[in-house]
């Protein structure tokens, strides 16, 4: 799952699907990608369970599977505070270096 969502285009697809179910053609239009590219990314996301698909007439409708993404969410939340503290420490160091240059 982590490897699948590490790819930026796949995260864009997940962002779009977070707003609700969409057919492939909508994703192609919104992401300005070719249909083969979108289908390839959707296949990877389906294989890891991040998205689900259903047929509706001649269209395939894709939706986010939030339950499958929960482990990633939980992992990020667990370390979020630690990352924020490190960024704050980095800001302090950068300010100190700027002061030394002046």
From TrEMBL:
It holds the Pfam family HTH_5. It comes from the Bacteria. Keywords: DNA-binding, Transcription, Transcription regulation. Transmembrane segments: none annotated. Residues 1-83 form the HTH arsR-type domain. CDD domains: HTH_ARSR. Gene3D superfamilies: Winged helix-like DNA-binding domain superfamily/Winged helix DNA-binding domain. One of its GO terms (molecular function) is DNA binding. InterPro entries: ArsR-like_HTH, HTH_ArsR_DNA-bd_dom, HTH_MetalResp_TranReg, WH-like_DNA-bd_sf, WH_DNA-bd_sf. SUPFAM superfamilies: Winged helix' DNA-binding domain (SSF46785). The keyword DNA-binding applies. The keyword DNA-binding applies. NCBIfam families: HTH_metalloreg. This is DNA-binding transcriptional regulator, ArsR family. It comes from Amycolatopsis arida.
């Amino acid at each position: 799952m982590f490897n699948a969502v590490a790819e930026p285009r796949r995260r864009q697809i997940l962002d779009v699907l977070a707003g609700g179910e969409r057919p492939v053609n909508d994703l192609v239009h919104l992401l300005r990608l070719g249909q083969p590219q979108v289908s390839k990314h959707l296949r990877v996301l389906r294989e890891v369970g991040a998205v689900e698909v259903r047929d509706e007439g001649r269209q395939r409708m894709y939706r986010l599977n939030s339950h499958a993404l929960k482990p990633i969410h939980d992992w990020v939340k667990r370390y979020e505070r630690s990352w924020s503290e490190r960024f704050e420490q980095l800001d302090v160091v950068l300010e100190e270096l700027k002061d030394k240059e002046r």
